[in-house]
Amino acid sequence: MSEVKHLISPLDMSTDEIASLLKLAGDIKKDPKKYSKVCDGMKLATLFYEPSTRTRLSFETAMINLGGNVIGFSDAANSSVAKGETIADTIRVINYFADIIAMRHPKEGAAYVAAQNSNIPVINAGDGGHQHPTQTLTDLNTIFSEKGTLSGLRIAFCGDLKFGRTVHSLIEALVRYPRNSFILVSPPELRVPDYIREDVLKANGCKFTELTKLEDAIPDADILYMTRVQKERFFSEEEYIRMKDFYILNKEKMALASPEMLVLHPLPRVNEIAVEVDEDPRAVYFKQVQYGVYARMALIMTLLGLSL
Ligand code: NCD
């Protein structure tokens, strides 16, 4: 089983492999039609034990664009999980049906367990508050395509840095490129987990600051990565209500930013970006969705060892 390539953490790919993937994604963007038969006769299984709109549909679109087919479920209550089936057993069964799996699960480590029991590639489409490596590929594709580099950037992350798995994965990916520095903007209760501060940022010798005011971060940022407060991971409703509108990016705050600063957001947006910001050319969060499809097309091809 060890020969099969999986994507469980962003670190499962070297920076060279990421560079090749982004190159492929760029080529797909230029001429998607060229790739429309690459996965002819193949199947992607999307196993979503947790709500999703974008990620699941983005995977399905990616596979269909490559000429493949899709099976799966988007509501675990309608699958055998409701009867008590383990992840290991579900994965063994899906191995007979599909060529590749994209799985989202509320428990940290679930995708890893799936990979251990799979002879076909498993892609982690989000495991609890832990990792979301394909959102990271989406984000890297967006940054690389729009900025032309993944190095020497000042990246501000704002919002729920504690539970936001997209934040954890993207920081882990970006510390591997030279001269990146980080501005971490959150309420004190929602700071990044200790392991990100100690084992990722400090261990890689990266410059970073932690702030509570978004206004203080904006003037210095090349990238502003906004995030939603992760309601579903809070222990109490009152705590969530207290935090949910802590940050709202609006036109007034955008006026503090450089003309080249880009605003990213993994979506869904709740209140943290006012709709008035959408028309700002620096707001690339909807464009990011398109970059995500190309990144996932490139990933499916890479894990299945396919080329034109
Ligand atoms: C993110 C996620 O699921 O972690 N969404 C996504 O995949 N685009 C971010 C979020 O839910 O806030």
What can you see in these coordinates?
With 308 residues, the chain is of the alpha/beta class. It folds into two domains: 10-131 and 292-304, Rossmann fold; 134-288, Aspartate/ornithine carbamoyltransferase (Rossmann fold). The chain contains eleven helices and nine strands. It has a five-stranded parallel β-sheet. Helix 6 (165-174) links the parallel strand 5 (154-158) and strand 6. Helix 2 crosses helix 11 (285-303) and helix 5 crosses helix 11 (285-303). The chain starts with 14 loop residues before the first helix and ends in a 5-residue tail after the last helix. The mean pLDDT is 96. The structure holds N-carbamoyl-L-aspartate.
Q: Order of SSEs, N→C?
A: HEHEHEHEHEHEHEHEHHEH
Q: What name does the CATH topology of the largest domain carry?
A: Rossmann fold
The second-level CATH architecture of the largest domain is 3-Layer(aba) Sandwich
| Number of helical regions | 11
Structure summary, number of beta strands: 9
> Could you say how many structural domains there are in total?
2
Question: What are the segments in which pLDDT stays under 50 over at least 5 consecutive residues?
Answer: none
| CATH 4th-level superfamily of the largest domain | Aspartate/ornithine carbamoyltransferase
Q: What class do helices, strands and sheet pairing give? A: alpha/beta
Show the helix and strand layout:
Blueprint: H1 15-30, E1 43-48, H2 54-65, E2 69-73, H3 87-94, E3 100-105, H4 110-116, E4 122-127, H5 133-147, E5 154-158, H6 165-174, E6 181-185, H7 194-202, E7 207-211, H8 214-217, E8 223-226, H9 237-243, H10 251-254, E9 262-264, H11 285-303
The protein binds N-carbamoyl-L-aspartate (NCD).
